[in-house]
Amino acid sequence: MLAALAAPKGGGAGGNGPPRGRPKAARAFVSFPRPGATDMLYREAGQFKTTYAADTAMFPILQDRIGFVALLLVAFVAVPILASPYLFSAILIPFLILSLAAIGLNILTGYAGQLSLGAAAFMAVGAFASYNFVLRIPGIPLLLAFAGGGVMAAAVGLVFGLPSLRIRGFYLAVATLAAQFFILWALTKIGWFTNYNASGVITAQQIVILGRAFDTPQEKYLLVLAIVTAMAFAAKNMGRGNIGRQWMAIRDMDVAAEVIGIRPMRAKLLAFAVSSFYCGVAGALFAYAYLGTVEPEAYNLDLSFRILFMIIIGGVGTVLGSFLGSAFIVILPIALNMLVTWLDGTLHLNVASSAASNVELMVFGGLIIFFLIVEPHGLARIWQIAKEKLRLWPFPH
Amino acid sequence: MVQFFFEVLIGGLLSGVMYSLVALGFVLIYKASGVFNFAQGSLVFFAALTFVGLQEHGFSFGLALLATLVVMVIVGLAIERMVLRPLVNQPPISLFMATIGLSFFIEGLAQLLWGANVRGLDLGLQDEPIQWINDTVGMNISKFDLAAAGIAAVLVTGLGLFFSRTRIGRALRAVADDHQAALAVGIPLQQIWGIVWAVAGFVALVTGMLWGARNGVQFALTFVALKALPVLILGGFESVQGAIVGGLIIGASEKLAEVFLGPYVGGGIEGWFPYVLALLFLLVRPEGLFGEKIIRRI
Lengths: 397, 298
Prior knowledge:
Largest interface: A-B, 49 and 52 residues
Order of helices and strands of chain A: HHHHHHHHEEEHHHHEHHHH
Oligomer: heterodimer
Largest sheet of chain A: 2 strands, antiparallel
Number of domains of chain B: 1
Shape of chain B: globular
CATH class of chain A: Mainly Alpha
Radius of gyration of chain A: 22 Å
Structural class of chain A: mainly alpha
CATH topology of chain A: ABC transporter involved in vitamin B12 uptake, BtuC
Strand order of the largest sheet of chain A: 1-4
Order of helices and strands of chain B: HHHHHHHHHHHH
């Protein structure tokens, strides 16, 4: 009974998103054990919560715990053994790094409800700050430099978050474009940031942690994976905890939140700072583990938009959605490209490469619209629905 | 020095009119449907490219103009039907994202249809200083800029009259005020939205031809949308006159800043100065100059 009551909160996707349309609790009561239902692999019947700790667990259902551990094992053990260098450097590493950036933006936009179009700029701050920490403080541990990059990004984020105390909605969104353009301009024009490099494209320093160099794609992947996993856990728990609830209250109705005793200034600025910290670390990783260079142009408005797409398509206000959206946006162009090449090869259409890239652009835009129409709550919501269905399977109700 | 200042100022004001034109397209749609239409820049690009492309296929100026107008109206109606109608009642951010997706789609479509070459667009107006003004007060004022400002003024006045004097305009303002109340008194909501998108397509055509004639018809035209955003937040999203006044302020201050402030900080500040200016302005007036003040209560 207890388990059935708690059921709709189950798993990584649940609970935290924006208010959903359909009442869920009413359906959960049906999943009592039934005779002959042994083929239901995914069910929580019989799993009773006897402590408060069990009641607030991140994965309250045993199957979710097993699944998650299996996923981690695959990510940390199987993938490094099996994957090719191309897979690491073209798909897995950018996927993980952009997931982290998407989590950062999700904290600000999904949890706290402050629309931002400047995520890439805070990534740039993180990258350049890390570069300068390593450059100017000899012997600084690289991880500390990454964290320092995150802190610098958080500080800049605080400054650009100040207007959010007065400005709302699309006015704020456009105002965050000020951050995007101003920061990139400053990084390009002020020589100190780039160490007076004439070309503006700097080679990132080698990744060395505790005397061990991380040079191969495999090693970089493991480093990125470890950082992203830790930070995703932290984000998930922030979203479930006190501060996450404050953010969601501000998002849903800031006046009401203020009335019940939440300080909007503190909550909003904290959201900007934490979000920018995540983006900053992601930006540093983007430069060091993916690009290998530190350059302002890599963090243009286009990247900001792509990160925003990730959270919209993945699911606003969910950590899982950040990963799903990032996977979608990273893989889609590659898949489209492969599809066009394949069509070209088999059907001998002789598509000009410019036409192919235009078709790609159209399909990309079209798919985004399609997804917004079909599932406005994102891929994370589809996952949640699938789990609800699975819980009852093979019974219809 | 004073003369140079005024020359820069007037040049800025005139280019500000061009920004206003783009901003106007945004305001129309935001006012009527609450959609922040990021695809306006792409529509401008699409219109200019279609016009030039048709001319290349042997259409005369007038015929190409008419055909493009028809195309833009169809595009506007199609967007309303296929993108916005299924998304009714979604949060504004979803609609905003949909229009970003739409802008990708239109950019791809435009270049697929007409190719990506940079083309010139000739309106029969030369971008040269007017001799008469140069002789009398010694300032360089471009003939083209002045004509563009004139066209913009006609367009704005026309739209203003359309909105305030006609039956459709009144219905449109009613829809903007309150969708449900408008529906309740029998105003056909979707028809009105169709009209608004068609008008936005028309504005995009005018904007595209003016910008295209000035900078050449090329992909960079889509970025004029980014120029229009600070104009919008400065003037307020819901206000036609806000778009005009905001455009003038942004245009003038941007050019003045670039010329007089730029050399001290390394130049290139045109890209962000309007945004920072608009941002600072918003701190004083969070809903822009002429935006609607929203009273928030529980």
